[in-house]
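Q: Predict the bound structure with WT7.
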Amino acid sequence: MSDPLTSPEARLFHPSNEFAAAAHVGSLDAYHKLHQRSLDDPEGFWGEVAAELTWSKPWDRVLNADNAPFFKWFEGGRTNITVNCLDRHIEAGQGDKTAILWEGEPGDTRELTYAELLQEVCRFANVLKGLGVGKGDSVAIYLPMIPELAVAVLACARIGAVHSVIFAGFSAESVRDRVLDASSKCVITADGSWRRGKELLLKNIVDDGVEGCDCVEQVLVIQRHLAKEPFAHNWTKGRDHWFHEEVARVSDECPAEDMDAEDMLFLLYTSGSTGKPKGIMHTVGGYMVYTYLTTKLTFDLKPNDVYWCTADIGWITGHSYIVYGPMANAATQVMYEGAPNFPDEARFWDIVEKYHVSIFYTAPTAIRAFMKWGDAFPQKHDLSSLRLLGTVGEPINPEAWMWYHRVIGGERCPIVDTWWQTETGGHMITSLPGAVPAKPGSATLPFPGVDAAVIDESGEEVERGLLAIRKPWPGMLRGIWGDEERFVNTYWCKWGGKYYFPGDGAIRDEDGYIWVTGRVDDVVNVSGHRIGTAELESVCVAHPAVAESAVIGVPHEIKGQGLVAFVIIRTGAEGEESSWRTELMAMVDEKIGKFARPEKIVFSVDLPKTRSGKIMRRLLRDIAEDRPLGNVTTLADPSIVEQIKVKYQERA
Ligand code: WT7
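A: Predicted complex:
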C-alpha cells in the first residue's frame, strides 16, 4: 500500500453534481451533520432508523449499555427480519417487484419477485418445520450460490431457527468442526454445483463431514443438477431428504415467528489468531436496522437500481449485502452462481450489460484479476448502466482503484471502499458516495453512528496506530458462540473494556480519512478471506513427518496476501521434500479447503527462535519480502536465518 502520509499525491475524487444532487446524503456538510448527530444522540438517531421498519412490539430502550461489553439494542422490541425483508414490501404494493435475477454458471436463469420469494421462503420454512426444526434450533447451510441459498437463510429466520452458513469451498472437516460447534440439528445442502465448468459434489462432502455427528438429525438436499439424473451421491435413509419431494407436500403460507430483538439470528464462523474458528453471534433487531441503513446510504440505493454484490452468501458480505440489507430495502438484485472467468473472462461484464446493473460491489482481489486479464474484456460490453462501484474485503491498492474507476466506472461512478468485518455486521468506515470525496486506497470516514479512531496502546489518538471503535453500534457481534471469555479477550480487553478492538492497523490523515493498513494479529487476508496462521500451522503439524511449522502472510499480486509455510521435518522422517509438499497441500484441501493453500512450503532445519523459544515471525517476513534482516542478535542461533533464506529463494 502507498503511504498516505508521505505520498505527494493527494488525489480527491468528487461525485458528479448530478450524483450528489440525487443522493440520500448529498454533501460533505450533510454527512458531518448526520455523523455528529448520530454520536451526540445515538439512541435518537438509531430509534428513528428503526422506526422506518416494522415491529410487532416497539422497543423499550434503544441501547442498554449497563453490562458492557454485553450490549443490547432495541431491548424489549419484537419483530421478524423476514417481515421487513418480504411481507412489508408486499403490503406496500411491491409484490411484483423483482427481487432476484439469478444466473447459474451454465447459463440457466431464474427470476423471483418479492411475492414469489415470500412464497418460496414460506414453503421452505414449512419443510424445515416438517422436519422438526423450530425456534432456536441450529441449521447448517452448505449450498452453492443458487436462489435456494437465500431462501434457506430467510426460511430459518422466518421460523426463528439460527442459521450457520458454511461457505461451500470449505472441506468436509471444516463442515464437521462448524456443525459440531453449533450443534446443528439439520444440514441443508445440494447434490452439487458448478465451478469453472466442473461439478462440485457438495452432498458427498456433507456426508463425510457429518459422519458420526450425533447432533445431525436431518440432511435436506436440493437438486441442483440440470439433467433429470441428480449428481452422484450417497443416501442415508431416514436422515436424508430431497427438498423437491418435501416441498410438494407443504403450504405456501407460514406465519413469521415473533422474535425478541436480542434473539439470535445467525452464527457465522470466522478465523482468529488461534486454530479454532469463532462462531460470531448476531441478533435480530440491531443487525436488521444496521444492514438496512448501511445498504441504503453506502450504496445510495434507489427503487430503480439493479444491484449486484459478487460475494458468496457463505461470507458475511453475502449475509449483509445480498440477503438482509438489500432485501430490507426492497432492492432488485443480480445473483450469480459461478466463476468470473467462465466461459471467459468477460462473464461479469456480460451480466452487467444483460441486467443493466447500476450498483456493482466486489473485492480488490477480483479487480486485480480483471486488471490482469486486460481491458479488452470489459470494453467489449456496454457498462453504461453502472452508476456506483464498491469494494470490500481488504485494502485496495491505488492502482487497482484507478483501473476500476477508469475501465469499469468510465470515470463517472463514485467508488465506495467499505471497511468492516464479520464481527461488525455491516459497513463501519466507508464514504457515502454523494457526500464524501474518495481517495484511492482509503475507506475514508466512519459511517453515521460509528465512532472510529486511530489510537495507540494507551488510547491516545495518533496518526499511525490501531483502529478502534469507541461506541457500540447496532450491528455489532453479541458474542462468540460458547466462548464468552474469548469474546471479551479478543475484542474488549485492549483498552480496559472501553473500546472495540477490530485487529487492524490504521493511519488517519490530516482530513481525518482513515487508511486501514491490514491485520495486526496472526490473521492473513487471502483474497478477502480470513485465515488464521495458527489454523494452517496445525494442519502442517498433523503430518507425521512434521515437527514444527510457522506460517506467515506475504504480499501477493492478485490475492492481496498469500500464505507461506515454513516447515521443520522430524529427524529421521521417511520421505522427501517433493512428496511431503504434495501431501501437505492435500491436507490443507482436506482440513480447511483449497482456498487456504499456501503459495510456498519451505522446508528448513529450524525456525528463527529467541533463546526462550519464541518464533520470530518478523524475520520470516523479512526473508519473504527480501528485506534486510532485522535484529538477529536475540536469536538462539543467528545462522538459521541465512539457511532459511537460501531455502526460501530456492523455492522462488
Ligand atoms: C477484515 C475482515 C468485510 C467483509 C469481508 C471480510 C479486512 C475488510 C476492508 C477494506 C481494508 C479491509 C480487515 C478486516 N478488510 N474490508 N475495505 N479495507 N481492509 O470480512 O472476513 O470478517 O474480514 O478484512 O482486515 O479486519 P472478514
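A: The longest helix spans residues 114-130.
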